[in-house]
Amino acid sequence: MAARLPKLRARQDIVAAVRRWFVEQAFLEVETPALQVSPGLEPHLKAFATDLEEPFGQGVRRLYLHTSPEFAMKKLLVAGLTRIFQLARVYRNGERAPTHHPEFTMLEWYRAEPDWRRIVADCEGLLRAAVGAVPAALGGGRLRWKGHEADPNASWELLTVDDAFRRHAGVELLATAPDPAAPDPKLLAAEARRIGIATAPSDRWDDIFFRIFLDRIEPKLGIGAPTVLYGYPASMAALARVHPDDPRIAQRFEVYACGLELANAFVELTDAEEQRRRFEADMGLKERLYGERYPIDEDFLAALASGLPPSAGIALGFDRLVMLATGAEHIEDVLWAPVA
Length: 340
Hints:
Blueprint: H1 5-24, E1 28-29, E2 35-36, E3 48-53, E4 60-65, H2 70-78, E5 83-91, E6 103-111, H3 116-132, E7 143-145, E8 148-150, E9 157-160, H4 161-169, H5 185-194, H6 205-217, E10 227-230, E11 252-257, E12 260-267, H7 272-290, H8 298-307, E13 312-317, H9 318-326
Helix pairs in contact: 1-3, 2-8, 4-6, 5-6, 7-8
């Protein structure tokens, strides 16, 4: 604890700076329950399940610790709130690594306006406020990790996913997905093998995408200044809208610093039927890969159907931000009491 204490004190200062920044931007801080009917439906995330015992013998319900507060926060947008943020404790099973922890803090915020560049501007202001709160003795003013630095006060790089593949891997990504709804893995597999990355016959297009991305592209993002990587393939839209002028891409971006992902953002999908189709497809994939599926939050879909306003939102790994702002190498270096 003594060795970690300077970084933990800096964490406290960053928390205060983040809250102050959101107050200055007229955001309302909200709190939503960790116990949910549906924990989040990303196919590769594993949730913690628990049983809620109702009083007076009224039965037992299976609930989950949320992997993100996204569903609950969007219900608040439907209820009429327009700028909200939350520092939420979230839970993901099977995750423990230098940059992953089974219980961690996610900073999530939403604007009832569909301008993803406004969320980018939020990120810039927020990261500058965060590093400005760190003492000079810990390298305040820079994000640092694995020998790399990124200066949030410098001009941020905006880079499309397609350009990132072209620049760092020599691959024309979108050309390998002529049908954006069902990209054929054979075309991307051939490109992967051409640049020396192995594939397997069972690989999906998305699997090959990540093999190339993690090996050739991610380590080169956010060096010198943060990178905003935008224009993800439509097959990776998740809860984002497909771009109205280009059906090959989704209105989604991620923020990288020092080769590490910090945040994931969407212009939010407001079509309840399309969202249901995506959820069912994701749970079908989860069942094929891992032999389980999670319930769909019908209350969330009903809220979408009743009128989610045009919105944009983002989830930022707060512990990772503290890591980079203090120069920590391991996520547990910035946690007060890591999970044993």
